[in-house]
C-alpha cells in the first residue's frame, strides 16, 4: 500500500513546479510596466532634440571660413609627392586548408611507428 505514496509525491511535486512556472511566466509577461520603444522613430521630444542638434551642426559648418591663400603660397607649391605606388599582389593560397607541398602531414610520433 505504501508503494503508491512515492509516485503520488513525485507527481504532486511536478504539479507544484508546473504551477509555479506558469505563475511566474504570467507575472513576468503581464507586468504593468510599459515596454521599451522598439520603433526606429523616437518620441517627439527626442526627435525635436535631434533636429536641434542637426541644425546647430549645419550652422557651424556653414559658418566655416576657409583661407584659400594657403594653396597659392610658394611654400605649398614647392611640396613634392614622394608616394610609391604599390602594385596589387595575390595574397594567400586558393585553399588555405590544403596540405603544403613539400611538407609531411604525419607527425614525428606516428612516422616512427610509436
Overview features:
mainly alpha; 5 helices; 50% helix
Query: Which percent bin holds the helix content?
Result: 40-55%
- Provide the gyration radius in Å: 37 Å
* Unreliable segments of 5+ consecutive residues: none
Q: Strand-and-helix sequence, N→C?
A: HHHHH
Report the portion of residues in β strands: under 5%
- Total number of β-strand segments? 0
Tertiary shape: flat
The total count of helices amounts to 5
Mean pLDDT: 80
The biggest sheet, with number of strands, parallel, antiparallel or mixed sense and barrel status, is: none
Which structural class should the secondary elements be placed in?
mainly alpha
Termini, distance in Å? Answer: 64 Å
Written account of the structure:
This protein has 114 residues and is mainly alpha-helical. It has 5 helices and no strands. The two termini are 64 Å apart. The relative contact order is 0.03. The mean pLDDT is 80.
Amino acid at each position: 500500500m505504501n508503494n503508491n505514496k512515492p509516485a503520488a509525491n513525485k507527481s504532486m511535486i511536478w504539479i507544484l513546479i508546473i504551477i509555479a512556472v506558469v505563475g511566474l511566466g504570467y507575472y513576468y509577461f503581464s507586468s504593468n510596466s510599459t515596454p521599451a520603444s522598439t520603433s526606429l522613430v523616437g518620441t517627439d521630444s527626442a526627435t525635436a532634440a535631434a533636429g536641434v542638434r542637426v541644425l546647430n551642426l549645419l550652422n557651424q559648418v556653414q559658418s566655416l571660413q576657409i583661407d584659400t591663400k594657403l594653396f597659392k603660397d610658394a611654400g605649398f607649391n614647392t611640396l613634392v609627392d614622394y608616394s610609391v605606388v604599390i602594385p596589387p599582389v595575390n595574397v594567400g593560397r586558393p585553399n588555405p586548408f590544403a596540405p603544403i607541398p613539400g611538407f609531411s602531414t604525419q607527425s614525428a610520433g606516428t612516422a616512427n611507428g610509436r
